[in-house]
Amino acid sequence: MKTKLLWIQGLSCNGNVHSFFNYPALEQFLEDFSFIHHPLIDSEFSLEEIVSSYHACDILLIEGAIADDFMRGGKRIIDTILLYAPYVKKIVTVGTCATFGGIFKESPYQNSSGFLYHEEKKSERFAHFQDKVVSISGCPVHPDILVNTLYMLKENMALHLDSFYRPKEFFAYTVHNGCTRNEYFEYKVDNHNFGEKEGCMFYDHGCQAPFTHGSCNKILWNEVNSKTRAGEPCHGCTEPHFPRPDLYVTKKNMGIPQYLPLDVPKRAYLTLSGVTKAFKISRLEKKLIDE
Amino acid sequence: MARASKEEKKTTIMLEALKLFSKEGFYSTTIPDIARSLGMSVGNLYNYFKSKDILAKEIIKYISAYLGNELRKINDRDISAKEKIHNIVTIYFQTAQEQPEMIEYFLRIYLANREVFKDGCEGMICVSDFVTEIMIFFEEGVRKGELRDQDFFSAFGLFMGYLGGMVFLFGEKVLPEELDNYVDDISLNIYKALKSDEN
Predict the structure, then answer these.
(1) pLDDT mean across residues, chain A
(2) Given A47, A122, B123, B153, which is the most exposed site by the fewest CB atoms within 10 A?
């Protein structure tokens, strides 16, 4: 039997919908799941029907930030959530805006935030639904991670969640895990130009991969690539404080990065980096293919 | 009496070597001199340090660890950057007065004889305990808005170059007064040079 989904949008740019459409086996997915309503897919009920009365479904998917006075389909989005949240089995926040507020937490609407969180602070508004929540943060959401999570929910598999209700299966890792620039990271060689294969972007170019939870370098985007592989720093898009200012600059205090690799004590980091910086690895200082 | 452990014995040798280097000079002091001064055989001393160069490197690491440990205690205190600067200057000058051979070794032997230290003490490897604590002090000071953000070495050179210079003058007996008497002024000068514009 198909699992019934309802996809609704708060303050959103549609980015998560578009990312979801890149799921390679979308046809198979639609064999196993159906949308009672989706903003861009023809579905059983219109938005007006969805917001005016309850229609049975299994999982509520929320995309975008929530605000007290934000309307969708002529109704406050909060009221639509309250219409469905008590009855669905699970509530999945799709993307970082729905999870932590993302860029739309800066909007002029009242109390813009994620469903459960404003950055890392839990809000009271929907706290009584927290046991149903699974957060899939990301800007946008990674289609494979969203779909795999939905299949795990469909099959009633045990989901181990982190403190923000994100599945550890995907969010226990850092984006640094699997990065192809590991040699440059190890020997503290930034020396990077955007788009090039050479250099680690953590030291000068703002890469947040060593302290960002996600599987971007394990489960590749479009099955082929990731930001860091393509020569673009990780922007930390799965985390509560996304987007931080100055995404292309490493925030440093007297030359020392303010944000260090996850759980690495500052003393240990500084001691290690002092050692590796003492060595010049000529192979890493120039282009790999130099002819 | 319990026999000294190997580590304790190594420390004893390093401290004796420090005294002799300070008194007789680094190149004039030989391993047999150090052994004789300790009343041990040359062969036995080689059990602890295989060469004078290795001993030299171990000594600089020992001094760096000693000062790093003192700085760490200061870093762990919940006090302002201004107070930390005063504490760091105090401990540095105190060490220079009470154990002058330590600071002298750093200034006159480690910095002046890089060829001895080039293999194994590249960059700041052998002084990392000390430098790490200075980094932590700077980083926290900037993060809390007490110190101005700037290039690490510009700040490091100002701080350590200044202290090193004063100790050097003290060692040359140029200073009319004891080092203690300069702590307040020098701490204030360093603070004024490093503080953020808002303070």
Answers:
(1) 95
(2) B153
CB contact under 8 A, A254 and B128: no
CA distances from A159 to A18, A167, B150 (A): 25, 6, 46
State the best of B72, B128, B195 to mutate against chain A, taking most chain A CBs within 10 Å: B128
Q: How far is B26 from chain A (nearest CA, A)?
A: 25
Each residue of B48-101: pLDDT tens digit?
999 999 999 999 999 999 999 999 999 999 999 999 999 999 999 999 999 999
User: Chain A residues with CB inside 8 Å of B141's CB?
Assistant: 253-254
- The helix (run of H) or strand (run of E) holding residue B14 is helix B6-24
SS3 B62: helix
Predicted pLDDT of residue B158: 96
In this complex, is the C-beta atom of B132 within 8 Å of any C-beta atom belonging to chain A?
A: yes
A274/B131 CB distance under 8 A: yes
Q: ipTM exceeding 0.85?
A: no
Q: Which residues contact B7 (CB under 8 A, 6 or more apart)?
A: none
For A37-57, write each residue's pLDDT tens digit: 999 999 999 999 999 999 999
- Phi, psi dihedrals of residue A136, rounded to the nearest 5°: -120, 90
pLDDT of B130 above 60: yes
Nearest CA in chain A to B148: A254
* Pairwise CB contact (< 8 Å): A253 & B128: no
Domain boundaries, position B33: 1-50
| CA–CA distance, B94 with A36 (Å, rounded to integer) | 77
Tokens of B92: 């540095």
Could you tell me the sign of the dihedral formed by the alpha carbons of A141, A147, A153, A154, in that order? positive
Angle at A201 between CA A200 and CA A204, to 5 degrees: 120
Write the residue in B124, B150, B155 that is nearest to A274 by C-beta: B124
User: Does the A173-291 domain belong in CATH 4.10.480.10?
Assistant: yes
Domain with residue B165: its CATH number is 1.10.357.10
- Is residue A145 a contact partner of residue A136, using CB atoms and an 8 Å limit? yes
CATH of domain A3-169: 3.40.50.700
Give me B169's structure tokens. Answer: 């003058």
Q: Determine the distance from the C-alpha atom of residue A63 to the mean position of all C-alpha atoms in its chain, rounded to a whole number.
A: 12
